[in-house]
């Protein structure tokens, strides 16, 4: 039982009143109230105004009078607001007991939206030719956080990472190694993924600008990559897997794990495209163009505002989208699975990571498809994803079976760019892997960690190095993750190292520090918190506001799930921290001379601590006991 209990009670009673008035099909809302509108507020009066031919204020007054005759457990009184809203005031003696007791349960915050149905979340999908940069991190953290939220909402989540090991960017590093003689071992112990991106890829693409003859070499390499038996393809597989290993090491360090790696090269050779192309033709979803600039091509017709999209060129080769369509259909289980599976490794959290294989010698069957799919790809791919979403809707006959979760890019503040070695003339830094204008995620993590380590040592000189190391890791990972998801997905992020580490404002360290503060209170109390307390003693405004915020956890999980919005949980964690700090400033917990009141407040502090820890876990952020 949480704050939702009072919302359900009010909604049921209002429906009974409507039934008595012979009124039906009114889709009113009952929501936690804004300040000045009681504890719960409803818009029901506005929706009835036209039908009853009265003002919302008059209707609210009538409903408030009728509500007095309803059976109420959690509502103390109802009241008509002059604006027309119908407001309700909670019986906090009872509601506090429900909320705080619920918070101590393992299932706190759970909502059953998924009902154990399967859903695929595909994210990361970075070309295996370079290290992950700070722009990629937004994709990875969004995907991982959405996966965690969906699991909390009782979905069975299959997390996939699509490895584009046959595209142009891979061809570029193979040209570098094969034709420009780059050593396969990086210099001075440099990570292999950093070496490929910083040196081989950037310097090779620079050469294209001065030597046009290299374009033919590039095309030939790309063609050889698609032939799985060629020496070039085998060499590329060895190189890209070394890069992938470095990328995964970065992801694991940030607390991100997967269920399966899917390789584009295998999708191309699997025959999936032929199967889906036949379906597209049979369903008349593609057309052959006989004239014009696309003569001889197979196209998907535009909707009038957009041009037709070529999926098979006149020379018979498939375009980029032709690789994505069969993969999308496979994720939804619409095609027979052509893959076998083999164990890639055991990840740091003991989760087994599998990989697709076309090798039939040791058949292992797995199912990583889903009834629904969420694909996390940046907004620049919106048109392509719209086409795929529309096609999958027609195949599956379920409009929302395939979902593109888009997001905007990440830039670096001018000061942060300068700190990390990029000169931007005082402007924000835009990422460009091709031009070498990017900052790898490992470097940002290392710098955040070092800053945190120094500050922690300064605050706690008595701490041993291993504990400082643990705190520095938790704070630096928390900082990176929080900065990537605290804003709306359609907003560009400007990442700033100094601001993101502040112990004040909307930052991960502020929230983590609040958790550490609560831990310290409980430690100093020397008592084991319990729910066997007198909840009626919790009457102060700051106490009730904290209890209310604690009780909103499952409503926030529901909202985040329905809207695929990690920001909802990030905002909730911040609201929780703000509510606790307000309580802490106004309500002393220990040494009150009143053991019963102390126990009640200790119960509240522990309730906050438990819920914040669970909410932060949905964001993939650790809640340190000390900072």
TrEMBL record:
PROSITE patterns: AA_TRNA_LIGASE_I (PS00178). Gene3D superfamilies: Arginyl tRNA synthetase N-terminal domain, HUPs, Isoleucyl-tRNA Synthetase, Domain 1. Residues 511-627 form the DALR anticodon binding domain. A motif ('HIGH' region) lies at residues 126-136. The keyword Coiled coil does not apply. It catalyses: tRNA(Arg) + L-arginine + ATP = L-arginyl-tRNA(Arg) + AMP + diphosphate. The keyword Aminoacyl-tRNA synthetase applies. SMART domains: Arg_tRNA_synt_N, DALR_1. SUPFAM superfamilies: Anticodon-binding domain of a subclass of class I aminoacyl-tRNA synthetases, Arginyl-tRNA synthetase (ArgRS), N-terminal 'additional' domain, Nucleotidylyl transferase. GO terms for cellular component: cytoplasm. GO terms for biological process: arginyl-tRNA aminoacylation. Its EC number is 6.1.1.19. Keywords: Aminoacyl-tRNA synthetase, ATP-binding, Cytoplasm, Ligase, Nucleotide-binding, Protein biosynthesis. It is found in: Cytoplasm. GO terms for molecular function: arginine-tRNA ligase activity; ATP binding. Residues 8-90 form the Arginyl tRNA synthetase N-terminal domain. Its main location: cytoplasm. Belongs to the class-I aminoacyl-tRNA synthetase family. This is Arginine--tRNA ligase.
């Amino acid at each position: 039982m949480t704050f939702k209990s009072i919302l359900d009670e009010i909604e049921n009673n209002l429906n009974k009143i409507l039934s008595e008035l012979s009124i039906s099909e009114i889709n009113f809302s009952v929501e936690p109230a804004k300040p000045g509108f009681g504890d719960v507020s409803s818009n029901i009066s506005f929706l009835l105004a036209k039908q009853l031919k009265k003002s919302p204020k008059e209707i609210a007054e009538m409903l408030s009078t009728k509500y007095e005759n309803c059976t109420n457990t959690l509502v103390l009184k109802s009241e008509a607001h002059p604006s027309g809203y119908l407001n309700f005031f909670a019986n906090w003696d009872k509601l506090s007991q429900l909320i705080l007791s619920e918070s101590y349960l393992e299932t706190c915050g759970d909502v059953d939206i998924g009902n154990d149905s399967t859903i695929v979340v595909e994210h990361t999908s970075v070309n295996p030719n370079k290290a992950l940069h700070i722009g990629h991190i937004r994709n990875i953290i969004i995907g991982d956080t959405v996966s965690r939220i969906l699991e909390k909402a009782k979905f069975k989540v299959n997390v996939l990472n699509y490895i584009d090991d046959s595209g142009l960017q891979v061809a570029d590093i193979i040209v570098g190694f094969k034709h420009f003689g780059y050593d396969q071992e990086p210099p001075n112990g440099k990570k292999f993924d950093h070496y490929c991106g910083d040196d081989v890829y950037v310097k090779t693409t620079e050469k294209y600008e001065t030597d046009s003859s290299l374009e033919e070499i590039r095309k030939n390499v790309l063609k050889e990559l698609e032939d799985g038996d060629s020496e070039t393809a085998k060499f590329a597989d060895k190189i890209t897997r070394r890069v992938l290993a470095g990328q995964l090491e970065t992801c694991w360090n940030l607390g991100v794990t997967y269920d399966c790696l899917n390789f584009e090269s295998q999708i191309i050779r699997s025959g999936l495209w032929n199967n889906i192309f036949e379906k597209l033709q049979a369903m008349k979803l593609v057309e052959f163009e006989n004239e014009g600039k696309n003569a001889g091509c197979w196209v998907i017709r535009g909707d009038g505002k957009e041009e037709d999209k070529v999926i098979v060129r006149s020379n018979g080769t498939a375009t980029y989208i032709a690789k994505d369509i069969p993969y999308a259909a496979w994720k939804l289980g619409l095609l027979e699975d052509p893959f076998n599976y083999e164990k890639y490794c055991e990840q740091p959290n003991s989760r087994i990571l599998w990989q697709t294989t076309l090798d039939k010698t040791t058949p292992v069957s797995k199912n990583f498809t889903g009834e629904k799919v969420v694909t996390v790809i940046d907004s620049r791919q919106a048109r392509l994803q719209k086409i795929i979403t529309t096609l999958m809707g027609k195949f599956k006959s379920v409009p929302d079976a395939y979902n593109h979760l888009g997001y905007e890019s990440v830039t670096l503040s001018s000061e942060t760019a300068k700190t990390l070695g990029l000169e931007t003339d005082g402007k924000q830094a835009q990422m460009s892997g091709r031009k070498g204008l990017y900052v790898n995620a490992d470097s940002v993590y290392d710098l955040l960690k070092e800053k945190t380590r120094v500050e922690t040592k300064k605050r706690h000189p008595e701490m041993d190095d291993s504990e400082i190391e643990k705190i520095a890791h938790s704070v630096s990972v928390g900082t990176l993750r929080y900065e990537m998801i605290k804003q709306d997905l359609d907003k560009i992020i400007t990442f700033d190292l100094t601001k993101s580490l502040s112990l004040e404002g909307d930052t991960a360290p502020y929230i983590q520090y609040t958790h550490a503060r609560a831990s310290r209170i409980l430690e100093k109390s020397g008592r084991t918190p319990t729910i066997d307390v007198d909840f009626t003693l919790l009457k102060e405004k700051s106490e009730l506001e904290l209890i209310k915020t604690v009780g909103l956890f499952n409503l926030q999980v529901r909202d985040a799930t329905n809207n695929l919005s990690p920001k909802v949980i990030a905002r909730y964690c911040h609201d929780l921290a703000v509510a606790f700090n307000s309580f802490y400033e106004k309500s002393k917990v220990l040494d009150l001379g009143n053991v019963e009141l102390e126990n009640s407040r200790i119960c509240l502090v522990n309730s906050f601590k438990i819920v914040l820890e669970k909410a932060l876990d949905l964001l993939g952020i650790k809640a340190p006991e000390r900072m």
